[in-house]
Give the backbone structure.
Amino acid sequence: MVRLEQVTRQFGTGIVALAGIDAEIGRGEFVALLGPSGCGKSTLLRLLAGLDAPDAGRLAWDGGAAPGAGEIGFVFQDATLLPWASAARNVHLPLRLAGQHFEEDAASVHALLARLGLAGFEDAKPAALSGGMRMRVAIARALVSRPRLLLMDEPFAALDEFTRNRLQDDLLALWRETGSTIVFVTHSIYEAAYLATRIVVMTPRPGRIAAEIASPLAEGGDRRTDPAYAALVREVTETLRAVMPA
């Protein structure tokens, strides 16, 4: 889908967030970006989203052009919902910004909310929803335009473990159904190992790629009880220890 070629990003303060990043993200992959705080994971997402530009290097997209409006979905750590709008209206927002009318899309919006376990909450305002429910609305909003690329910046970090595990399972199911490419930022080794087809481990600032680890986990079954999952967690943990300063 996209190749990053010697991508470097430096801010005006002189801080080098990313230094010489070479990576490739294939169509349909689920890639986790893992590394310490400040290593440039979120900066890399912003570059992929077209919200920022590299100071050196380039992003080479398949077909020569970056995804257009509606082809990229973004989910942040905070759900960032409009507090005055219902769940359904929040989900519909990307389509409304593209000039579509809610009445034309209501059925598909309601179906997507139902797929994420929110049937019956279409008219609820964010204040009436739990943290996990608000995040489900945010995920539905990111998916409503059927994006080619879904970027997720620690979306489950603030949730309790039970809710986080449920949403991880829902996200995996949706990824398999839609075939979207997902790039997922996390600080959790366990989350990266559970979700991703490939884990990109980054060094402390300036962010570089220290290792890329392909997941050996089979599709289906209970991944958390798979011995291969425990082995993958150990491998990623050892890799992170090796790149962290003593």
User: Anything to note?
Assistant: The mean pLDDT is 93. The CA atoms of residues 8 and 56 lie 5 Å apart. Residues 80-147 form one domain. The chain is about 35% helix and 25% strand.
